[in-house]
Amino acid sequence: MAKNDNLVKSIAEADFSSVDVALDKYIGRTIFRLKNPHLDDLWSEDEIDKFLCTTDFSFGYLSMKPLYISYKKGDLDRKAFILFLDLKLSLIETVNSFYNFILVNNEATRNTRSDRFIMAIEAHDMVVTFILRYRALWDKFMGYIVYDIRGDGEYEKFVKAARKKTKFRKLFVEVDVWESVGPYIKKLEEFDNKFRTPEAHLGGRAYKKILKSDGPFLKDEYFTSLIEHFNFMLNFVPVFSRIIESK
pLDDT-based confidence at 79, cuts 50/70/90? Predict the structure, then answer.
């Protein structure tokens, strides 16, 4: 716990909001590249800062400000903070992985690169990274809800459960939370069957789709359906925020 206390203190002294700003800038760099392909990599920090000031980051956004307020009041749950920080980092990294795949896809669309095979490897790397991060992120969403509502004891049981979706459903299927979360867990089952299980436990599907492609990767339904799941996850973020704020 002492290590956790030191981590909380070090971030709090810098102000939790500065963590939000730093993470905004991290994801903002990738979005900047998406919106300004003509600049290649010849952009300055000033250009990025200006872009960040005019960009809406409300999509899929988890603010750490409530944690900072709780810290100042002296009633911040240290473990909740660690879990929330881990969740926010995972969210940012998952979003960044997806946008990086879109960057490679856009390069394939413009046909500006001659190293098609290397570009295909990059696309495969980004897609599989996104799939695995996306799935891990949902376990963290569920885990935080369990900790926040059912407490540390149930949380420890949840993280050790082999079938986390099943464990989560048993904990909440008969309470109001399920009405908000249930449709997303059902959608997650679809994601597992189509993406996570083939990539993590079977022979993989993404590489076959990518290597057969001779144009934009997103022209294949396999990849366009990833956009649907990506948007579904972003739509869940405000639902998640309302759940933990209304406890």
Answer: confident
Nearest to 163 by CA among 192, 183, 130: 192
For the chain, first and last CA: distance in Å?
A: 24
Candidates 23, 131, 29; CA nearest to 86 is: 23
Residue tagged 């603010």 (tokens): 63
- DSSP letter for each residue of the chain: -HHHHHHHHHHHHH-HHHHHHHHHHHHHHHHHHHH-GGGTT---HHHHHHHHHT----TT---SHHHHHHHHHT---HHHHHHHHHHHHHHHHHHHHHHHHHHHHHHHHHT--S-HHHHHHHHHHHHHHHHHHHHHHHHHHHHHHHHHHH-HHHHHHHHH-S-HHHHHHHHHTTSTHHHHHHHHHHHHHHHIIIIIHHHHHSS-SHHHHHHH-SS-GGGSHHHHHHHHHHHHHHHHHHHHHHHHH--
Average pLDDT estimate for 180-195: 92
Which pLDDT score is estimated for 1?
A: 47
Query: Can you tell me the mean pLDDT for 208-217?
Result: 75
Query: Which tokens in the block code for residue 81?
Result: 């903070």
| Spatial distance between the Cα atoms of 9 and 41, rounded to a whole number of angstroms | 36
Query: How many other CB atoms are found less than 10 A from the CB of residue 20?
Result: 18
**Mean pLDDT, residues 143-154:** 93
Distance, C-alpha 81 to centroid of its chain:
17
Q: Are 57 and 32 in contact (CB under 8 A)?
A: no
| pTM of the predicted structure, to 2 decimals | 0.80
